[in-house]
Structure to design on (1086 residues):
């Protein structure tokens, strides 16, 4: 019978029971090395400790941007949920304290979920929700002195950007903003608590300024409640960016600019905008770059309000966010004659010893081109004289001749030489200046040549022809209508044609020729440094929080101009101010003690439909190097739009900048009145200034 | 089947005339068996309550919700036990095929209307918050089906020793539900099914070479299927899921570790009910079901835990005692049920102690869960019914 089999089953069951009992005894009683609950929580959560952004300091270590501590009020939703009324009372009290509605506050602090639509807290439930940044002392005290009334509410300290100089160097420094979802997608190390550089040096050097976020690990039980703290990784403050900007020179340049614009406006001219660039021609470092109108980057701290942003971007505000010194491009007028003269001499179109006519007007291709105010000289001029008095017709003739020579070459089946264009390119015009700012903040300048003319016509031909056919019915004035229609007709049929007049226009920095004030400063620097076109820099060094220089930023050589040193010296010497008024623009420096140790070239650029753009490209104090070449410590370029002649507006403005640089009527902005050459010592600072 | 149904269901299946004579002597209900099962369920109620109350509180839900539900399940299970205990054991011949067929239908229905819980497609929602897991009833169905088949065919041949064709039919009876459960996939239930069937085979005096051969063939078949790529990718994935039955974020290792910590915490006397830090911290996933024993380990200590194991030992002892006294069909049914309970309890407690691999199996009577409680209630009821009609006198 099967009893034997049942006994077998009984034995099996008994062995199972014994096995379990033995194991149970071991696990609960015998085991000397029992496992204990350590970090075996269901999950660990991370609360980001955002790193303070690095400072940006000037050439003497003075902060242009630093960080200040600010108070943030946070609410722990999780703690509220553990209260009997789910935190209703706390939220109600807090809402009254910080001046928002209880409803908004509740929405803001509730974690998003399938049943919780926006607005809601997008972070983890255990993370404290910031409900008020930059909390005033009344709120901070209200919360911290009545903690029992505010369980789950905390005041934390965080850092925000601070601009000790207010709007000083606003467009150079740029601004930082909140991290967007797209940023986080492209860079996994970014998160909501971070700020990211959005413009200027803040954007260009974002990776060094940003630092490394820290993390507070929290231990969570399976319900997501914080039951303890894990390890804390302190944030690493961003590195400090030392710039070659000098706060004193920058301030002087900005003041000179706004003062001069005010003065020009008083005289009835619009003077809509302007810029000043100060750079060291020998090193390629930028010392100051002012732009008008400007703005206060403080507006962007903690997120700019819609109203403020609209104000900044309104047409009447005239683009204060755009840094004219580097992002703007304007017809350079006669300041361009540095390049024209270099080209003509270098290509043997004129000689340094020859004399050439300077009539009041000249007909080129049947169009009459005149000197400024039709000034005429009855005798031929040397290149020096032509530069000093800024004769235009002097340069028209060889430029037109160059054009015709090129056309002959083309007719013969050859290539146009386009010497003027090639020289302009060698001086850096037409390409971005390569300064250490975001690409879209660097104007590249422009000039016309055969190829671009043809290309543009191919694109725009149909528009011109349509406009010619339509005849501008919207334009009320009959004469204006006829003019525009004739222009459109001409462009329709002959718009591809590059003309002798175009080449003549370019020779005096008109027509389609434009440069940025920085590009002009770089070009004049080349005149004084033996022909080096720099990729100029604003940044000088990256210094970590221990004060160690981790990277030195040096301007690199973009190109060498093809002009002989002797020719560059000739031009520089020609424009060296003397005690009299031989050189155009020198009048504005009468009485300045340094007048005869600087040089300059004025520019008065005509702009269709607008008042003239006023320029002065200058350099000084002038010295001589061992080989007898003229040198200068600074190149200063000033520009004001719609302000009249270079001599009348830009020159007095530039004089104010030299007064600051050289310490006339004030202390010198720079020690020894020359560019700072040793990096400032950056004090190790794990700390940030408190408010 | 037809032949089976055509016979008078009350006709004895056993050919033993002495046995027929002795069936008229009614024995009383095995209150030790019923009492042990009831005690396990009551301990289960406390453990389920303790395992769920802090988590329920944390979620702002009724902390007694699981307790009430467990008590309701106990009540329904008790009613089913009472009904099953009233069944005339001789009706098993009729009931066996019906329960087997209905369980199989239930398993099939899972594929049509089933829902997935913890990675296994094994539940049928019946409404009112109830979900049925047909695999639980299949355990009973297979035991009854096999037992009746062996007894019936043995009676027809007037001999007890099963033939090869009996064994082959038994294999077919096992294979069909086993395959369906493997597809859900539910390794735990599949293992219980095999063990219960093995218990029936052993009790049925199937020659040892057959049982050993079947076990070897099964193991070889699985290895072959996996190695030779006979299985489709998704099937392999389901096999892989066997090792991760509790689809929680931290995986099986976490589960084992936390259960081990909880049990080790208990020591001799435990932390006291509701006072286990592991339990209150809800560290052990699935603590009211598969890992309910860890609550006993932590809060009731070695004394309480060994008592639970002891109660299972009592249930098995009483079951085997009933088997020894029953007619052939009843004996096989009882042997199958004992094998089922013993293995499932061993497997479940074993995985709480880090002794056996983790599979999704409830601890009989103790774990929270309706289907298992109902099936186990019926099983105990059937044991009682079989015990009340012993085939022979106590020797």
């Amino acid at each position: 019978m099967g009893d034997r089999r049942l006994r077998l089953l009984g034995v099996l069951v008994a062995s199972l029971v014994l096995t379990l009992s033995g194991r149970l005894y071991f696990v609960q009683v015998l085991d000397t090395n029992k496992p204990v609950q350590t970090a075996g929580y269901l999950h660990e959560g991370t609360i980001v400790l955002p790193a303070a952004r690095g400072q940006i300091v000037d050439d003497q270590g003075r902060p242009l941007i630093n960080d200040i501590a600010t108070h943030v009020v946070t609410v722990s939703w999780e703690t509220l949920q553990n209260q009997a009324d789910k935190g209703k009372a706390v939220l109600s009290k807090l809402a009254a304290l910080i001046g928002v509605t209880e409803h908004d506050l509740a929405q803001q602090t509730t974690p998003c979920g399938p049943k919780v639509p926006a607005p809601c807290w997008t972070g983890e439930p255990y993370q404290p929700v910031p409900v008020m940044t930059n909390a005033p002392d009344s709120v901070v005290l209200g919360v911290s002195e009545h903690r029992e009334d505010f369980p789950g509410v905390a005041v934390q300290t965080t850092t925000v950007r601070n601009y000790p100089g207010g709007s000083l160097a606003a467009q150079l420094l740029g601004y930082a903003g909140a991290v967007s979802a797209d940023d986080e997608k492209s860079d996994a190390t970014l998160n909501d608590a971070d700020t990211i550089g959005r413009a200027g040096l803040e954007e260009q050097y974002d990776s060094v300024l940003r630092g490394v976020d820290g993390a507070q690990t929290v231990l969570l039980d399976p319900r997501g409640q914080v039951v303890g703290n894990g390890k804390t990784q302190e944030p690493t403050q961003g590195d400090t960016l030392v710039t070659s900007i000098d706060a004193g020179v920058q301030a002087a340049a900005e003041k000179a600019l706004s003062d001069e614009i005010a003065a020009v406006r008083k005289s009835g001219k619009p003077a809509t905008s302007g810029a000043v660039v100060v750079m060291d021609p020998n090193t390629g470092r930028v010392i100051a770059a002012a732009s008008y109108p400007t703005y206060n980057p403080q507006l962007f701290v903690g997120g700019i309000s819609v109203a403020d942003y609209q104000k900044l971007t309104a047409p009447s505000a005239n683009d204060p966010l755009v840094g004219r010194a580097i992002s703007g491009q304007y017809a350079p007028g006669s300041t361009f004659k540095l390049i024209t003269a270099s080209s003509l001499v270098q290509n043997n179109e004129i000689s340094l010893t020859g004399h050439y006519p300077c009539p009041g007007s000249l007909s080129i291709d049947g169009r009459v081109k005149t000197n400024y105010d039709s000034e005429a000289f009855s005798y031929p001029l040397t290149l020096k004289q032509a530069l000093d008095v800024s004769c235009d017709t002097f340069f028209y003739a060889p430029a037109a001749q160059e054009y015709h020579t090129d056309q002959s070459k083309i007719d013969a089946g050859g290539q146009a030489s386009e010497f003027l264009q090639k020289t302009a390119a060698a001086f850096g015009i037409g390409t971005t200046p390569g300064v250490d700012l975001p690409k879209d903040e660097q104007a590249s300048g422009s000039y016309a040549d055969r190829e671009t003319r043809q290309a543009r016509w191919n694109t725009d031909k149909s528009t011109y022809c349509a406009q010619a056919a339509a005849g501008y019915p919207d334009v009320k004035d009959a004469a204006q209508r006829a003019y525009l229609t004739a222009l459109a007709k001409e462009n329709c049929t002959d718009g591809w044609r590059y003309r002798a007049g175009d080449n003549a226009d370019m020779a005096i920095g008109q027509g389609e020729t434009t440069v940025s004030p920085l590009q002009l400063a770089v070009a004049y620097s080349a005149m004084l440094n033996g022909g080096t076109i720099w990729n100029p820099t604003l940044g000088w060094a990256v210094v970590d929080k221990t004060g160690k220089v981790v990277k030195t930023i040096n301007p690199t050589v973009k190109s060498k101009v093809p002009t002989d040193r002797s020719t560059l010296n000739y031009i520089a010497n020609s424009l060296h101010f003397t005690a009299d008024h031989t050189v155009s623009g020198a009048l504005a420096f009468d009485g300045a003690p340094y007048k005869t140790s600087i040089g300059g070239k004025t520019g008065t650029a005509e702009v269709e439909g607008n008042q003239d753009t006023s320029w002065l490209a200058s350099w000084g104090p002038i010295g001589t190097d061992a080989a007898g070449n003229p040198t200068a410590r600074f190149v200063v370029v000033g520009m004001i739009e719609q302000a009249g002649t270079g001599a009348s507006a830009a020159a007095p403005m530039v004089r104010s900048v030299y007064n600051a640089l050289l310490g006339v009527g004030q202390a010198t902005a720079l020690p020894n009145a020359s560019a700072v050459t040793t990096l400032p010592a950056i004090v190790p600072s794990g700390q940030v200034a408190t408010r | 089947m037809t032949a089976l149904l055509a016979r008078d269901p009350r006709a004895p299946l056993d050919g033993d005339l002495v046995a027929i004579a002795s069936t008229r002597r009614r024995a009383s209900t095995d209150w030790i068996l019923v009492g042990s099962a009831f005690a396990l369920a009551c301990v289960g109620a406390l453990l389920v309550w303790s395992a769920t109350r802090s988590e329920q509180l944390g979620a702002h839900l009724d902390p007694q919700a699981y307790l009430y539900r467990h008590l309701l399940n106990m009540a329904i299970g008790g009613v089913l036990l009472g009904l099953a205990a009233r069944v005339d054991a001789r009706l098993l011949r009729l009931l066996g095929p019906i329960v087997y067929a209905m369980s199989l239908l239930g398993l099939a229905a899972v594929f049509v209307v089933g829902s997935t819980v913890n990675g296994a497609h094994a539940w049928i929602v019946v409404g009112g918050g109830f979900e049925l897991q047909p695999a639980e009833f299949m355990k009973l169905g297979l035991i009854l089906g096999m037992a009746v088949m062996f007894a019936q065919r043995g009676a027809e041949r007037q001999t007890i020793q099963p033939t090869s064709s009996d064994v082959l039919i038994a294999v077919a009876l096992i294979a069909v539900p086993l395959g369906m459960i493997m597809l859900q996939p539910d390794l735990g239930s599949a293992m219980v099914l095999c063990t219960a069937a093995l218990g029936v085979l052993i009790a049925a005096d199937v020659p040892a070479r057959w049982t050993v051969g079947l076990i070897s063939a099964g193991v070889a078949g699985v290895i072959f299927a996996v190695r030779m790529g006979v299985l489709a990718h998704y099937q392999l994935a389901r096999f892989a899921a066997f090792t991760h039955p509790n689809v929680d974020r931290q995986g099986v290792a976490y589960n084992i570790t936390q259960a081990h910590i909880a049990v080790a915490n208990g020591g001799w006397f435990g932390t006291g009910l509701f006072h286990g830090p592991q339990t209150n911290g809800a560290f052990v996933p699935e603590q009211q079901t598969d890992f309910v024993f860890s609550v006993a380990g932590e809060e009731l200590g070695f004394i309480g835990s060994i008592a639970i194991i002891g109660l299972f030992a009592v249930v098995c002892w009483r079951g085997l005692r009933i088997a020894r006294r029953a007619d052939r069909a009843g004996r096989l049914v009882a042997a199958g049920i004992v094998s089922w309970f013993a293995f499932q309890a061993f497997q479940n407690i074993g995985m709480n102690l880090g002794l056996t691999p983790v599979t999704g199996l409830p601890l009989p009577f103790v774990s929270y869960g309706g289907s298992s409680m109902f099936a186990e209630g019926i099983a105990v009821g059937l044991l009682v019914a079989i015990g009340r009609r012993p085939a022979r006198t106590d020797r």
